[in-house]
Structures
1.
Amino acid sequence: MSTPAPHPFDQALELQPQPGQGLWRGATSPAYGNMVGPFGGVTAATLLQAVLLDPQRQGEPLALTVNYAGPIADGPFDVQVTLARSNRSTQHWLVQMRQGEATVATATAVLATRRETWSAVETGFPPAPPASGLDRLLPLARARWTSAYDMRFVKGGLLSQASRPVGENADSVSLQWVRDEPPRALDFPALAALCDVFFPRLFVRRPAWVPIGTVSFTVYFHADGAALARIGQQHLLGHARAHQFSKGFFDQAAEMWGPDGELLAVTHQIVYYKE
Amino acid sequence: MSTPAPHPFDQALELQPQPGQGLWRGATSPAYGNMVGPFGGVTAATLLQAVLLDPQRQGEPLALTVNYAGPIADGPFDVQVTLARSNRSTQHWLVQMRQGEATVATATAVLATRRETWSAVETGFPPAPPASGLDRLLPLARARWTSAYDMRFVKGGLLSQASRPVGENADSVSLQWVRDEPPRALDFPALAALCDVFFPRLFVRRPAWVPIGTVSFTVYFHADGAALARIGQQHLLGHARAHQFSKGFFDQAAEMWGPDGELLAVTHQIVYYKE
């Protein structure tokens, strides 16, 4: 009997412990390649994974901020995690990703133990037809990582660029279903990566490709591990928009929902663009 | 002739260089005291200030994330800044704040040099009557820092608690004018602090005080220094809301606008609450 091959996402997140506390070695995965370097979502997931693998780890992810400090070359990288503070119900971690002597990413992660409290949702689950009735976006040849996700757009996809008149869209709002392809049970690293699957808001707003790159990316996790396990392999509904594009930087704000209307995460990023 | 005393905000941000690269010593300011420890906005501003004072600093603030790792005692603290990566137009900084051996806050800051590009705003300036026609919120005795801000609520203040029936509000949305009190010309540290002046969304939604504390706080700066200088001492318009309150944590998303409708910053935080 043969062991089934691990999912490409799990292969991409493989980390080997190195001599020295909190030091890990990984490598970029061709399956999650972007136009230049790796898909940022998998980088974020890898840095979170290094925290989750640490024997001192307590609790589940609450907040993750990843700063993309420089280009990540295809090939091996090192991840150093440091526990800055451990409290009764929260932990604060510092993470650095290096290639050779160069820091290519920094991150902070907060883990927390959740308890039952008064709860309320203020944001409405956005109306959307079910994923099963929509066509999957054809993967983009120039961004290999798009083959690793099943994305189905309700609004604000790239496909419409070919069919619409050249000019600006009225806004950069996207509403889309998304899951790993092939399907994979949802967990925190996968959700972190899914929070970065939105195409750059600039490309939704303007039908022109220019150099862009995420500078800083934050995820606040609203769901616990049990809630993620209940979602399993189902599509998530992502809703993204920008507040402003100005002087070389735009922001993005997004929510990630479970198919039954549970808010799983909110996520923000600020992105460089060239012109 | 006597020199005028510095503004209390500048006093609160005073940092003395210590032996060792990137090491500074400061102290909490009674003028910005909170119910327990200092107002988190001034802590964030202080950590940003330590980066801005560094002789290696290039560019202006683009992104700031502060993680409140543990209680900050009234008194002195040390701030260590490290330049993790310097690129042609961006710098990535790591910051740790310590009291004795304990890390009480961590932060990452991205500085950037901005250039003119295609620009667009997608979020509308929220309709609001001018600050001059609204009453200032009376400072709260239990939170000394509220004396250091002139806050005028259009919606979602705490004052309405006394007059409304006991029960939940329909939402936690606040719209409020705010500036330093006494007035002070706007700069990046002041804007970082102003991004944290919103009362906890939980207290706007529910008329009950429970222990709360910000865990992680992020600011994306959309304005450059010249734009902040043009604002000067005028009120800013802040617009804040929550997406979800669940299992001991709620989030907050907010925009900070100049009085003429310029989006200066977007800011997010995730906050612990006890019940």
2.
Amino acid sequence: MDTPQPETTLPPEDRPAESAEQLAEELSELVRTGGDDDLSQYIEWLEPREAARAVCELSDEDEVRLLERLVPQQASDLLIDVPEVEAIEAVAALPPETSAAILQQMPSNKQADLVAALAEEDADAILAEMNPTEAIKLQQLASYDPDTAGGLMQTEVVAFRENSTVEQILERMRGDAGRFRQLDIQYAYVVARGRKLVGVLRLRDLLLADDTATAGELMIEDPIALDVETPIAELDEFFDDHAFLGVPVVGAEGRLLGVVTRAAVDEQGQSNAERDYRRAMGVVQEEIRTMPTLKRSRLRLSWLSVNILLNVVAASVIAGFQSTLEQVIALAVFLPIISDMSGCSGNQAVAVSMRELSLGLIEPRELWRVWRKEATVGVLNGLALGALLGAVGWWYAGNPWLGLVVAVALGANTVVAVLIGSSLPLILKARGVDPALASGPILTTVTDMCGFFLVLGLATLMLSYLA
Amino acid sequence: MDTPQPETTLPPEDRPAESAEQLAEELSELVRTGGDDDLSQYIEWLEPREAARAVCELSDEDEVRLLERLVPQQASDLLIDVPEVEAIEAVAALPPETSAAILQQMPSNKQADLVAALAEEDADAILAEMNPTEAIKLQQLASYDPDTAGGLMQTEVVAFRENSTVEQILERMRGDAGRFRQLDIQYAYVVARGRKLVGVLRLRDLLLADDTATAGELMIEDPIALDVETPIAELDEFFDDHAFLGVPVVGAEGRLLGVVTRAAVDEQGQSNAERDYRRAMGVVQEEIRTMPTLKRSRLRLSWLSVNILLNVVAASVIAGFQSTLEQVIALAVFLPIISDMSGCSGNQAVAVSMRELSLGLIEPRELWRVWRKEATVGVLNGLALGALLGAVGWWYAGNPWLGLVVAVALGANTVVAVLIGSSLPLILKARGVDPALASGPILTTVTDMCGFFLVLGLATLMLSYLA
């Protein structure tokens, strides 16, 4: 490209890249020896994501010292950029009055997320440092389920009374331009007594209106609004069906409580999908590698210890058939294969059910329909996989009967696996258990036991042909 | 709640819920016997998501007939609501002129997604039915990587010349109010010759301006703009750092090409996270259960067949130690446990690396740092899990040496698993292979082989204590 480009803000490549560890060392040095201004300028000089990485690399003490010495606005910007687990720890470790000052610089929904994630005593100490009215509001906001309109809404809304004129509205907006700019609003709301929502005002409609028109005349009446308890699945559906950037949230008596933006719903959707992935992989609570080693080990063991116990239970089925195994030792080669392949088939069915649930294509009560659809695929795939493994078994042991035993066992267990796998997300979801977390261990335990039982049970019945 | 609520649009509970299959039957009946208006009204009467579900349940022939009989706008709305795999099939199955008419009703980025996903001959046939200028634009748009600014941008932007006055701008907006309303815009762009981006105009600033001011006077000069090839990770970072709802996208010579919205980036982020989850679970291509059984079976087998071969390779290690197994049959109980637990530990490390990559906390080249952090956790967890399984082994076989063998094997293999698991996403990503898809099979094959080798190799060395 030959001609000058409009300014792009992404990584200015005019200074040498430093690793997060190097930046953290410089930052740590500054925390100990530099002035407040030096610190502030250093943070300002870094890209926001670089600053966040460097802060993650700091020791807990240095991080606290750094945040105490920055002005609350800058500390708040920094904490919004670091991973949430890190921000929660920092807010808990800071003196409550510092945390309160930093929190008050954040958007309301971010404040609420952090307060909700804190231990109760830490949250109480911070709330005690705030103005009581604000503290009560924040406590209320933090009490909503994060996957509902209440948990996702921001309370910063622009509301006018019905009889306000365009002139008055514009005057108020001009007088408060800084705040309006920061809110990045497209809509204002029109409210009656008791903050009851009665209309919505598109800012661009103000462009086309006379100065003397009132909000009541310009507003769209009976605006679409969602109840504060609307779950995220319905919010997602709502924004799929409506080209809105935000929707007002109302509580009892139609009282305007806040606004949920499309961006907030999409972001939560993304973070829930990422959580599903992590949990399916056995990362129960978010881990980042700058956490202390012992904590990381403990977080991972919480999952591994459950799994090893379930594994021992499943393997106990093998122990019950030890004499068969002694006579047909070749079976030992096939036990891990049958265990792993059944897990694979079952996991596919889990993932398809999770997807259909999130797309709203199935309801938890449609178990029967799901089973019908899975049974056919399970039989086809069971035949294919069974035939393949049967051929390997025949060739390996030089005995067609051993091939038959492993073929039938894997084929039948594939059907079992898809039936269980497909239904687990529906059953767990209906019971309020996270299906991404619990489906895997339950599935593999059941399919392992069933698979071991099938192959060793069949082998025992056919022992005279195998030994 | 006692007082009337503002209208909420979510499921009107005033008619009995019907299953998607019942709705599809009614719809299928209407496709065969009803008039075009009946069909259109029936679709209108359904909630968008209900309509989408019912359409998925229709046979391919009925779906094509339905879409042919609706007006293009309604058919387009319907196709935007169904899962993308279903929409792609429908667009491919319809006569090209019908598909072209339906596509032209969609937003530009949706059109491009569908065209990019079609087989080349299907796409060409549809493009041939469009106005050549539009077809070339669409083809260009479809050629961008979906995870870049070009793939995510919409080309519908509002642009004015520098010397346009507020009066002219407002006049143009009033004259074209319908279109502006549909775009739901907050910003307009100011361009010079050759559509070179020179400024951005906030619509709300028009509120505060004189009629005679020009776009050039009101605009923010040297606006932030991103190159058309900016990858999604940088877009994500950009919107984290800036409170914008959208950012203009420019090509060579600063030419304004479109705008990427925060919502588009968040939605793509969510759909990528969901795809990672599905792929990690072995669902390589999206499957929904209304697809033909044979196709579903084939999609799943494409993954399972690779895995069964890898499993056979891994299990061949067991075959090499058959005489050891014959003498210490108890080991057969522990092989599946060691295989499964190593997979669990490795998967955790994969997920933590995937997370850190997406948070921008690690770069693919930081392998050494990741290994250092994993080695310590691997040793701790290896000790814990090894001790646990060792105790089970001792108790089960009544032989402390057998306990020692399984303890050492699982402990060492845990370290191997976290080292491999943590590095796979970094290595695969650097090579352009999808880490969510490929990490699992590579990890489990290597850890299975290594685990089997460790436990059976150790047992062979210590055979005199075990047999």
